[in-house]
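From the shared-data thread, chain only:
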Amino acid sequence: MTEQVLIAGAGPTGLTLACELARRGVPFRLIEAAPGPQPGSRGKGIQPRTLEVFDDLGIVDRVIANGRLAMPIRSTGPDGQVRVSGTDTLGDRPDIPYPASLITPEWRIEEALRLRLADFGGAVEFGTTLSRFEQSDDGVTAVVLKDGEAETITAQWLVGCDGGHSVVRKQAGIAFDGETRDAVRMAIADVAVDGLDRDAWHMWRHDEGLVTLCPLPSTDLFQYQASIAPGQDPDLGLANLQAILERRSGRTDIRLSSSEWTSLWRANIRIVDRYREGRVFLAGDAAHIHSPAGGQGMNTGIQDAHNLGWKLAAASNGASPALLDTYDAERRPIGAGVLALSNARLAQAVETNSIAVRRDATTMQLDIGYRGSVLAHDDRDETAPLRAGDRAPDATKLLTVDGERRLFDLTRGGHFTVLNFGAVPALEDGPQTFQVVGHPKGPGEIADTDGQLADTYGATDRTLVLIRPDGYIALISDAGDVSALTISLAGFRTRG
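Structure, as tokens:
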């Protein structure tokens, strides 16, 4: 049997892509070389834009229940002065449902995604390694190994979500430009700790270096981080980690009693020169790796998958193959921007011997967008605050025949949505459409009870808005141009 998509790598990126395909009924296989789920807190910061992705996938409540929003950071300087930060949020805003970052172990994210994938009828094939592949104009032929047995899989597309050492990237011959900075290292471990409260993320800055202990919500553990400068002992044994903690914190009452996962991180800062080679795509760490400073990496990979998933599904159902070209065009500039942001944060951390956690629209990834994309069309002035290509903002207090809803309640599920603010005729055989009316009398009608939706979208009494399945605006027509909407939809049109 020929699959539509073969996904290599079942971390957060591969799992998100699998969920996107599974909920649309696209045949796929998701293979993972590891024998089972990976341990470790690893990337523990989830940004608000990623929480919106999880909302769309139907897992956000589970994720938030296993995490903590706006965790305070208690930083102690070399002089003993304590500064508390990190509690700022974007406030109570109707356009942003999740106004703060979340701390949760990465394995919890993978767990939530695996459970959701099971809801859709999918599963991870653990202990299955991609050995080699070839591609042609018609598809990809891959050989995978499991329990010493080889199997040949044919698929329309192959997606490498297999991390920084990606087999897919290497065999596709895609350059991975950048550098490795061996002088910048960090010891990371999940440890049990006695003698320290779990009320905040604790940081100590010392002339020797930085050490931090961050409580991991939904567990009894802390994530330990310590910078390791050239000449310093990189041993990950508990005794060395304890010694570093005592020297840098000046405290002997905090005891590390066990270590469940450890890693020595080195600064790798790289990005591929292209996200696609024929029928092969790259996403997540296979396409871009960088410093954890800024908490961007896992989030960017998840959003790579959210962008690619609906496009692969559309292409597999007959949409123009050109749609797949927009993945590289839209996501590589985002990856490059994240690389630059993380690099700047890393330089700041090295210079100041601290981790500065900024929570603004950039680090929260709420201002990521695709203005200028071939998929973005509008008739607005360049100075308009909301344009095609931007993230579609949320809105509250929308009255439907079923009661009050948020806009995200209506767009949830990975489909196109039209907001019709005027008396524009509905399209035949079009996507789900919501007519903004004074009083809803039937399905597909919503009342903007306090004008919030119109204000947020800068709508006139004729405005049409087309929202993509990944929550970005494909079209805004303040003139109510139905032909522009029809042309925009034609590029996404599938069979059936």
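Residues 322-352 form the longest helix (31 residues).
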